[in-house]
What we know:
Elements: H1 7-19, E1 25-38, E2 49-52, E3 58-61, E4 71-85, E5 90-103, E6 111-124, E7 127-140, E8 143-158, E9 163-175, E10 184-196, E11 204-216, E12 229-230
Antiparallel strand pairs: 1-4, 2-3, 4-5, 5-6, 6-7, 7-8, 8-9, 9-10, 10-11, 11-12
Amino acid sequence: RAANPPEAVKQTIDRYLSALGASPTQLSGFLELGFGWDSNVNSATPNSQIAIPNLGGIVVDIDPTGVKKSDSFISAGGGLNYVHGFSPEWAVIAGIAATGKFNTHEDEFDTGTVDANLGLRWSRGRETITAGYQGQDFRVNQEAFRKSNGVVAQWQHSTGESGQVSLFLQAAELEYPGQSPRDARRMIGGVAFGYGWSTPSKPVVFGSLYGGSEKDKAEEYAYLGYKPIGV
């Protein structure tokens, strides 16, 4: 799940990267290209056999597609962010982004993500409060795997001309098409910071610590829930 962090975290980072040069109306975009190696491209067990305790410990073979696989990959993405200030304190914010991860050999585990957000931002002095909608469509091998719809709220405080600290909270409904027992509700909260330098290259450093819970909607599948923690 490290390749798909909570949207509150990604949106917080995006705002840090553009906040130092923010203007009443601003349109910004990005393109990215990367490559790497994934040691477990299908998020599977490394074992070819497992024992089932409820069946007396009987050992069964796992289908080869369900055993851990590794592969190299190329990733690509891009997006647009729009901010329009309609008063000295209020602004509309919107954004859309798409990313893809393409494996060299295990292409049945290629992934793609489309994110969208729309909200309002209030600013006065060193304080900024943002609230809005966030949605995501996550696909595996070009087929719908997970859809997310939710809300996010963030309080941001500027410690000076170049520093920021924020608290954020996200609530989302997760839907797995064709896998309704996995449908869940996610709550994420955290703290983040950012600092930028006014040197010619304008470097920015940022960090975040977050945690929460993801609970399955169906009580009989409560064991599918978990508690994410990240840095």
